[in-house]
């Protein structure tokens, strides 16, 4: 009989998710940044809207380790025309704003501006899409919300602040294919090109996959991400999103527990992907999500997955809860709950009991 270990995984996830304080700090930091962008006299005229992307928005973020900070990506959909502006032009347009509000805390990156706060890292990611800007398709309450997709949809919070989020979510992602077929363009200043990106399709795909997995998919992702952080902290690749994407390709639909999802996902990688695959990006299939992953890095990762898959299968098929919990702890570390200890209690012998006394129950 399979050991689903439901209550154990619930407790484990509490230990590896972002804490309430971390979520609060993220929200305060990105809400302040987005408000400043939309209200600043100089940069607001360039901006159509802002929205969140990344693991925080997709509900797949895990708690940082080793002194790292929580992070969140803010996509800024600009009114710039990529045919008329270079990537550096668009990035540079935001520097006076950053100097005004975040002096000494910002740095220019290849495709974005990084802002380093006390407890949070923010990525300001300017993008361009003239037709989407003109269509108004990106003016949407769900998109503008600071909540992740699980908070907005999966928890069935139908009415937050008087607004039906489920209807808005379904409405946006069931619209015509106008936005689905047109990615945004991100400035790659190092390559001096505008490159395609499709964070909206990544969000839509994740929500649909989670629904197809009976709500377990995002938690399978979090668990496997934690395994990688816990067991292989010095391994740089695959990083957060490439690993998440690979899990998405390998996790079967209709899983009935997190334990099953982890086990089958790891086994799928072992059976089908002994060599590095091409992973077509959601919405931009010409992009290989594993493009920066070397063959050497992939081989090391694959070998680690082979070991992990054996442990996961043993844990899932274990004869007892105690055996299963011990094996999951071997895989995930001490954040996974310990099973109850079995004690045998002996009473110290005080008298000679070589003869049984008489009486009713002799």
Overview of this protein structure:
With 362 residues, the protein is α+β, with helices and mostly antiparallel strands. Helices cover 45% and strands 15% of the residues. The chain contains 15 helices and eleven strands. The chain has a five-stranded mixed β-sheet. Helix 11 packs across helix 13 and helix 14 packs antiparallel against helix 15. The longest helix has 22 residues. The radius of gyration is 25 Å and the shape is globular. The two termini are 43 Å apart. The C terminus is likely disordered.
Task: Reconstruct the topology from this structure.
Blueprint: H1 6-16, H2 20-39, E1 47-53, H3 54-57, E2 70-78, H4 87-92, H5 95-102, E3 106-108, E4 113-116, E5 120-128, H6 130-135, H7 141-144, H8 149-154, E6 159-160, E7 163-164, H9 165-173, E8 184-188, E9 193-197, H10 199-212, H11 217-231, H12 240-250, H13 258-272, E10 280-281, E11 284-288, H14 295-316, H15 321-332
Parallel strand pairs: 2-5
Antiparallel strand pairs: 1-2, 3-4, 4-5, 6-7, 8-9, 10-11
Radius of gyration: 25 Å
* Content of β-strand: 5-15%
Counted beta strands: 11
Order of helices and strands: HHEHEHHEEEHHHEEHEEHHHHEEHH
Based on helices, strands and strand pairing, what is the structural class?
A: alpha+beta
Helix content: 40-55%
Low-confidence stretches: 343-362
Our measurement of the CA-to-CA distance between the termini, rounded to an integer number of angstroms, reads: 43 Å
Largest sheet: 5 strands, mixed
How many individual helices? Answer: 15
Average pLDDT confidence is 86
User: What characteristic shape results from the CA principal axes?
Assistant: globular
Biggest sheet: strands side by side, in what order?
1-2-5-4-3
């Amino acid at each position: 009989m399979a050991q689903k270990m439901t209550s154990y995984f619930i407790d484990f996830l509490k230990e590896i998710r972002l804490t309430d304080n971390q979520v609060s700090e993220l929200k305060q930091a990105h809400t302040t940044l987005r408000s400043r962008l939309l209200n600043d006299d100089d940069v607001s005229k360039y901006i159509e809207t802002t929205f969140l992307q990344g693991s925080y928005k997709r509900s797949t973020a895990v708690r940082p380790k080793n002194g790292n900070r929580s992070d969140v990506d803010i996509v800024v959909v600009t009114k710039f025309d990529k045919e008329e502006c270079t990537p550096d032009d668009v990035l540079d347009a935001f520097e006076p704003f950053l100097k005004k509000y975040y002096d000494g805390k910002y740095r220019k990156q290849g495709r974005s501006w990084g802002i380093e706060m006390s407890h949070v890292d923010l990525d300001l990611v300017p993008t361009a899409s003239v037709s989407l800007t003109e269509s108004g398709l990106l003016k949407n309450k769900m998109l503008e919300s600071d909540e992740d997709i699980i908070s907005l949809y999966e928890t069935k919070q139908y009415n937050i602040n008087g607004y039906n989020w489920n209807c808005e979510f379904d409405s946006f992602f069931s619209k015509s294919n106008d936005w689905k077929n047109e990615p945004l363009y991100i400035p790659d200043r190092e390559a001096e090109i505008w490159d395609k990106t499709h964070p909206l399709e990544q969000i839509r795909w994740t929500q649909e996959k989670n629904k197809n997995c009976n709500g377990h998919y995002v938690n399978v992702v979090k668990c496997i991400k934690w395994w990688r952080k816990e067991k292989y902290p010095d391994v740089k690749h695959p990083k957060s999103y490439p690993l998440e994407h690979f899990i998405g390709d390998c996790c079967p639909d209709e899983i009935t527990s997190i334990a099953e999802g982890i086990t089958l996902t790891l086994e799928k990688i072992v059976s089908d992907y002994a060599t590095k695959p091409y992973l077509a990006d959601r919405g931009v299939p010409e992009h290989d999500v594993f493009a920066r992953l070397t063959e050497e890095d992939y081989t090391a990762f694959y070998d680690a997955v082979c070991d992990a898959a054996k442990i996961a299968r043993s844990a899932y098929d274990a004869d007892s809860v105690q055996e299963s919990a011990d094996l999951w702890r071997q895989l995930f570390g001490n954040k996974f709950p310990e099973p109850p200890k079995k004690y045998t209690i002996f009473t110290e012998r005080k008298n000679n009991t070589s003869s049984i006394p008489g009486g009713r129950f002799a």
